[in-house]
Amino acid sequence: MAVQPILKYPHPLLKKMAHRVAALDEPIHTLVQDLIDTMQAGPGSVGVAAPQIGVGLRVCVVDVSNSRHGKDNNHGLLCMVNPEIISRSGLAVMREGCMSVPDYTGDVERATEITVRFLDSRSGQQREVAASGFEAVAIQHEMDHLDGLLFLDRIISVSTGLFRRKQYR
Fold first, then answer.
1. 35 within a domain of the structure (yes/no)
2. Annotation: binding site for Fe cation
């Protein structure tokens, strides 16, 4: 269990659809811990998905509790296997960044409230979480990675919504 290197755009694995996980076994628990370690080591990171470390499985972790945007409204560390959004509402534009696209940020429109169903890798139980605000955005961002999408694919306007990052934080 260790910090893993993050694949950078335009690596072809970032554009592939991830496969469902068949069983919660030791390799999946190791993968989840690697994702947690990688997220915590990333500057300002609030999530990471398995495809970002070169693993084509539907696994991601999100934790916005240490972010100024999410510290007051969060569910703590979410370790999600085979997540699916079962409802969404509201829309807002937010600036997003990504460890796989370290030199840019962009304005992306996302649902402001979602309900996500997933297998919790820590408890082994199916869970449903109703998330809102920054946490909802972070979950959607990480789940996009599982579908081979980057925030670059969702920018509201390439001419006015993409920004070169001055410094990665």
1. yes
2. 98, 141, 145
